[in-house]
Amino acid sequence: xxxxxxxxxxxxxxxxxxxxxxxxxxxxxxxxxxxxxxxxxxxxxxxxxxxxxxxxxxxxxxxxxxxxxxxxxxxxxxxxxxxxxxxxxxxxxxxxxxxxxxxxxxxxxxxxxxxxxxxxxxxxxxxxxxxxxxxxxxxxxxxxxxxxxxxxxxxxxxxxxxxxxxxxxxxxxxxxxxxxxxxxxxxxxxxxxxxxxxxxxxxxxxxxxxxxxxxxxxxxxxxxxxxxxxxxxxxxxxxxxxxxxxxxxxxxxxxxxxxxxxxxxxxxxxxxxxxxxxxxxxxxxxxxxxxxxxxxxxxxxxxxxxxxxxxxxxxxxxxxxxxxxxxxxxxxxx
Length: 334
Known about the structure:
This protein is α+β, with helices and mostly antiparallel strands. It folds into two domains: 3-272, Cupin (Jelly Rolls); 273-315. The protein is 21% helix and 27% strand. It has helices at residues 32-40, 57-60, 64-71, 100-107, 201-205, 275-285, 290-315, and strands spanning 22-23, 25-27, 46-48, 75-80, 95-99, 115-124, 134-136, 159-169, 175-176, 181-188, 191-196, 214-215, 236-240, 245-248, 253-258, 260-270, 331-332. The strands form four sheets. It has a nine-stranded mixed β-sheet, with helices on one face. The protein has a four-stranded mixed β-sheet with strand order 1-13-11-15, with no helix packed on it. It has a two-stranded antiparallel sheet with strand order 7-17. Helix 3 (64-71) packs antiparallel against helix 4 (100-107) and helix 6 (275-285) runs antiparallel to helix 7. The longest helix has 26 residues, at 290-315. The protein is globular, with a radius of gyration of 19 Å. The two termini are 32 Å apart. The relative contact order is 0.20. Residues 139-287 form the JmjC domain. This is JmjC domain-containing protein.
C-alpha cells in the first residue's frame, strides 16, 4: 500500500480547490418523501446521521471473533493493494483467494497485509435490476444480513445488491463513479469523501484517457493533481462515521480515503428501471459532443434494452434473480 494513503484521511482537501469544496448536508429523521424531493431527484449527496444507528453490526462487528464465527468458512477474493493500480490509464486489479477467517484475523492484527475485500455480497435484490449487472462476486456472506436493517428509501425491487467492504485502513478508492444510486454506511473506522457532480467530468479528466468511469485521483502530496482546471472542480467534501449513511447519487464522481486501522463498511446499490437506464445512457454520452454524444447515448440505451429483454425472456419480468452465486474475481454481465 502506498504510504501517502496512510495519512490522507486526516488531510483537509477543501481549501486546495478554488472555490473550496462545499459541505454535505447532515440530516436526521428524514422521511422517504423528503429524501426523494430534496436529495434523490436533484441528485444531491446527503449524510443521514441516524441512518444506520439501528444496525446490530455496529456492536457485533467490533469483535473479529464474531465475524469469524459467522462467516469465517467463506472463501474470499481480496484485492492486493500493493500489486494493483487503480489510479491511472493503466488501471488493473490484482486478487488472491483467502478464507474470510484468515482475512479478518490478519486485518485485525498489528501488521495487517494490504488486502482489501471490496463488494463482498451480503444480499441481492429481487427485481430485474439485480440481473443486469455483476456476474461474479469476490465473496458471498449471507450470514451477515441479519446484522443490518435495510434503509427505507427505495422499494425492495430496486435493490441490486448489498456489499461488505473490509480493509486494513488507510486505503483510497481512486476517483470514479458508479451507475447505481449508493447508500454507504461505515461500521468501523471513518471515511473521508471527495464528491463531484457528473457534469465535472471534463474538468476531472483533463484530457486523461482510461476506463470510462475512472479519472486520475487527488492526492494531498501531489500538487500536479490540482493543476490546470482540475483545481477548479466544483464538489463537496465530508467525513462519515459509524451509524451514518451517505447517499452518493448515480454518476457522482467520488474518491474515498479510509482512516487508519481496520475499516468496515456496507453499501446498498439501487437501480430503478426504466428511469435509471436512461440516466445511465446520459452519463455515458456527456463525455462526448454532437453526433458522438447522440451515438453513445443510443448505443448504451440499446445495450441496456437488450439486457432487459434477454433477462425477461430468461427469467420472467419481476421474478427473482437467479439464486446461484459465482465466487471469483469481480466481473459483470454483458
